[in-house]
Every structure is written in C-alpha cells, then in structure tokens.
Amino acid sequence: MKTVLFIGILSVVFFSNNLVSAGQTSTPLTGGIFAGYNRSNGNTNKSVANMRLDLGRLSGRHAASLKGGMSYSSNNDLMDGQKWDVLGRYSYDFIQEGEWFTFYQFLADHDRFADIHYRLTPSAGFGYHLARLKEWEWSVDAGFGVRFERHRVNPSEDDVFPTAIVHTFMKKTVFSKAFLSEDFVIYPGLEAQVASTIRSETVFSNPLTDRLSTELRYILDYNTAPSEGSKKSDIQLLAGVNYTF
User: Fold this and answer.
1) Weakest-pLDDT range from 104-108, 175-179, 192-196
2) Which one-letter DSSP state was computed for residue 189?
3) Can you list the domains of the chain with their CATH numbers?
4) What is the rounded distance in angstroms from the CA atom of residue 244 to the CA atom of residue 33?
5) Residue 60 contacts by C-beta under 8 Å, 6 or more apart in sequence?
6) Cβ distance 244 to 54 under 8 Å?
7) DSSP code, position 156
8) How far apart are CA 208 and CA 189, in angstroms?
C-alpha cells in the first residue's frame, strides 16, 4: 500500500507541476465538488454515498486535470460497496489549430467487492477534438499503457499486462443552461485471458445558481472477466449537488 501511495503522490506532483509551469497565459485553476447520498427504507435499508473532486487548468495549448472520487454503499447496515479512483491527465495540442493533441495520464483505482485491491494504469496516446464550442464539446483519443493489478482475496490473480485505451468525451448544452455529458472509456485486453474493462459516466446537470447545480449521474463499470465471485457489471445511479469554483 505504501508503494501505491508513493506512486499516487508522485503522479499528483507531476501533474501539479504541469499546472504551474504550463505558461504565463494560463487560466485560473477551476474545479468542482460533487456530493450525493441516496437512502431507501422498507424491506431493506439501503444507503449510497458518493463524492468527487475535479480540478483543471488551461494554458494555451496545454491542459492539465486531476480528478478523484470515492463511493460507499451499505445494505441493512452491512457494507456492500467501496470504491475510489484518482486520474491525473496532461494533454498538449501539438497543431496550431488545436484539433490534434497528445495525452499522458495515470489512473489509480480500487474496488473492494470486485476484488481489486488496487489497479494502476499509466498510459499515453493521441486524440482529436471534433468540437470545441461552448455549447457543444466532443473529443476522442486512443493510446496504450500498462496495468498493474493487485487483488485482496485472490492474490494468485495479481498481474502486470499491456493494455490499450479508447476514450471519448461529449458535452452538450440543453434547456439553455443545463448540460448533458458522456465520459466513456474502454481498456481492451491485449493478451489472451486478459479482461477488458469499460466505464461509462453519464451526467445531467441543472444549475441552481452560477456555482451550484443539481446533478443526476449514471455510472456503469463492466469487466469481461471478473474475479471469482464478482459480477461483470456494477451500476450506480446518483443524485446530488455540485459546487464549481
């Protein structure tokens, strides 16, 4: 676990350095904090809590971001869900018009009930901005990386293997001020018997004030070959508030 913390801190320092040194014309640091909590009572008492923090800064052709989140759920006062993830990402528009870009990123995540003690995925690649308007954004990117997986219950499944990454992000303004976004990524396994993983996060956000908005989030995590006793798909439907700064 100390190794995970060291690598995580090192990645934060690396991307923070890019935020500071990206250039003199950089925009102020922006971000948002999301908090959601759902509880149902009846035959079962189910509760789900989720929190996310997003940070980012632009500087000419440079862009850097740091995102993290954690989720906890319980059923009849027994924990049945525990997740966290941290993603640091740096991209550079290497063509003057700003359509093509290269990216470097580091993902660390944990899912207790999928038997992922921790998983580290550094990767790099190229992407293209199909649209960069205020009311409509769309980008696609792809690359290659390495996955380091460590398991809590089945340590015999620990492994290191190459992976590809295919990612797209879309954001569309709806109803004048609200927006709908989709963040979709797939990590295809490049070797036989290596699982492919998919993550999709759909967000509908409706502003209450300039900085505060209500959000509905639908999150799907899918693993083609989960550990023994784990399900292939995990779905979260969350309602909460988001504060931007």
Assistant:
1) 192-196
2) B
3) 2-244 (2.40.160.40)
4) 6
5) 22, 23, 25, 26
6) no
7) G
8) 42
